[in-house]
Amino acid sequence: MMPTPPKATAMEGDAVPQPERQARRQDAGDDWGGPYLNLAVFCSEARQDEDGWSFVGVHGGSVSNGAPDSYAEPVLAVTLTGGRRRGAITLDIFATFPDGVRRRVTGPDRLTFDGPAFGHTLAARIRISAHSEGVIWFDVMIDDRLMTRLPFQIQHEIPG
User: Fold this and answer.
1) CB-hemisphere CA count at 13 Å for 148?
2) Other beta carbons within 10 Å of 55
């Protein structure tokens, strides 16, 4: 039986205050030694077996529906490799909603790296309320460093 990704709720729970310091941004010329982000995607399903991970229904991150009281439940998958980094790092994922509220989606997760080829894959099913339209930005952070930002668009259909 395939493991099912854990659920994380983006809309429920306490709001996370904005960090007092700005997140450091990974610039193209700024080689910090790792770990490196290999993949960050929304998909319908993530499966792990003896051959590794499979991501089914990879999509750009949007939902269009006619019910503001409904939810989207995509899987957010993140894959990292160690690079020159050895030791532990902290991985966090935050969502910033159209109204400016920022909430922790997953984390903090402590991950340990033991060399360049060693890596981690995390997949979490997230529950996103469709109560308001707009773009929700998901920030993948390693040790307070912004690694990537993924948009998820909520759009209500107009009954016609």
Assistant:
1) 14
2) 18
Range of the domain at 147: 7-16+33-156
CATH number at 55 reads 2.60.40.3880
Tokens 């450091």 found at? 24
Question: Who contacts 11 (Cβ-Cβ below 8 Å, separation ≥6)?
Answer: 71, 97, 103, 127, 128, 129, 131
Is 22 within a domain? no
Note whether 129 and 11 are within 8 A (CB): yes
Q: What is the mean pLDDT of the chain?
A: 79
- Of all residues in the chain, the percent with pLDDT exceeding 90 is 39
24 within some domain = no
Number of independent structural domains in the chain: 1
In a domain, 111, yes or no: yes
pTM of the model: 0.75
